[in-house]
Amino acid sequence: MNGRGLPVAGKADGGPGTNLDLTGHGLVQVFEARSGTTCPGLPREPEGAFTALADFHRT
User: Fold this and answer.
1) Biggest CA-to-CA distance, the chain
2) pTM metric for this prediction
3) Segments making up each domain of the chain, as ranges
C-alpha cells in the first residue's frame, strides 16, 4: 500500500500475492515512487479497461 492506502503495482518479488495488478480488475495502475504519463503529477496510469469504459460512455 502507498501513503494514500492504495495498492501498489510492481513489488520486488512480482508474485500475485504482492502485485495486485496481476490479480485485480482495476481501472488504473498505481505507482509507489513515480507519476504516470497520462496525468503528470498523479501516481497512477489508466489501464486499457479505463479507456474502453470512457470511450463507451462518450458515445
Assistant:
1) 41
2) 0.51
3) 1-59
